[in-house]
Amino acid sequence: MNYKYLAHHLIPAALLIFQSSCFQLPDQSTVGAIDTSTKVSAAAVTNKDTAGFTTGDTARLSSSTFHVQTESLSEDFEQTGKGKATYVKGEVISVNGTWLLADALVGNTGADRKNGEHDIRIRNTGRLTMNFDIAQAKSIQIMYATYGNDGASAWQLWVSKDGGENYEQTGETVTANTTTLTAAIFKLDIQAPVRFQIRKTGGGRNRLNIDDLVINGGKVPQKPGVIKTQQPEQQIVNHNHDDDNLLPGNPSAATPSVSSTDNYLIDHYYYTESYNKKKTAPNWVSWHISAKDLGSAKRNNDFRADRALPQGWYTADQTAYKGSGFDKGHNCPSGDRTSSSAANSSTFLMSNMIPQAPNNNQHTWEHLESYCRDQVKKGNEIYVIMGSYGSGGTGTNGYHTTIDNGRINVPSHIWKVVIIIPNGNNDLMRINTTTRIIAVDTPNENTVSANWMSYLCTVRDIEKATGYNLLSALPKAVQDVVETRKFKGGD
Description:
This protein has helices at residues 3-9, 341-346, 358-377, 427-430, 459-466, 476-482; strands at residues 31-35, 42-45, 58-60, 72-75, 90-93, 98-107, 119-130, 137-146, 153-160, 168-176, 182-190, 195-202, 208-216, 264-267, 272-276, 281-289, 327-330, 353-356, 380-389, 393-395, 398-400, 402-403, 408-409, 413-422, 436-443. The chain is mainly β. Strands 1, 2, 3, 4, 5, 6, 7, 8, 9, 10, 11, 12 and 13 form a 13-stranded antiparallel beta sheet that branches. A 6-stranded antiparallel beta sheet has the order 14-15-16-19-24-25, with helices on both faces. A two-stranded antiparallel sheet has the order 17-18. A hairpin with a 4-residue loop joins strand 22 (402-403) and strand 23. The termini are far apart.
């Protein structure tokens, strides 16, 4: 018996008595959901079944219906070695066996809905798969919730009885639409070796949290005797595929380790950044723009704290810039993410902001952003890296080195590098010595010119000022040409 699990999930006796109570389930494979935050002794049944309940109905818990087995296999994802900090496909090893994560990672942030230190976070149409069999399974309970500020997601449970060769769905599709961990219970009664797979099937880029799994009547035929840690090579992420935010390179070799406080890599999906805890702002942000990113979604204006930052880090909120004389300046702009409301909303996280002189933000930078979007509308795609450096800028209230009682650094310079290529495939291979590359470095002052071309420079100029290697994914021979050439203008 997993006592850590019981400590987290022992609901009042009226709700769940482990030895003899739960809610009535039909003989066929079905699923119900229990909101563990409530003290009401009822469970929402999420599917239409032969017991006569329909979606949204509640079934009163009794003391004589579904018996929870005392022999169970529990997985809380707490002991997964070094974990898995990126969405790249890879494995983690727990006390029960190996799990395959595709477009999924081991979550450990404040925005992950979890019991304990870790859970699983799945995005897009990602999957969490058992790479081992259990001897049998009478039922399975899975805790789920939406991640952070994301919207609803749908997911399904799939079963394989042939060692993972073939899978079939069991039960109904479950919808996660709350940040409260909720239990989905599937009755199975499988008397043969079996393994499970969780598939995220709806909600697009919204992320889904999965935590404590309990398989009643489940037993691993041969449990691993040693807890193995994930090998370092499983953490290596290859970014050389089209449309990847980091296709041109990782300028500062940022990592997603919480110990990398001043160079912390965050993948927001719609953009990727190196975040600086000391400055409470990004070092740089990198993203890709194509026609599919530009739609009709309205500007959300939902500035908010980034609750996904590591626990204990200061998180600036929408009031942090109030009265400072500086704009909440987007790195990845709202206008570059109008394909959906979720995409646009992502750009309003405060971890995407810097204190920017209003004229710099509203005129100089806006003109350059509009130029880039015009290029996309003309049949191009664009890779952008934007950042800032130094301390001390001049807004409408004069010169300041910090705002928010000294917690947010005001940069002295704001820069951007833009790579423009025609629409196509194999993007990295198509960036060559003739590719249009724009490099701009502006002072963070309110007297700045509205004409961004007044601040043209070379990529190498920015690299010298920041210490970054901005286009590290390109061959050195290509870098030596494009990084030393200043943009001359053009359509």
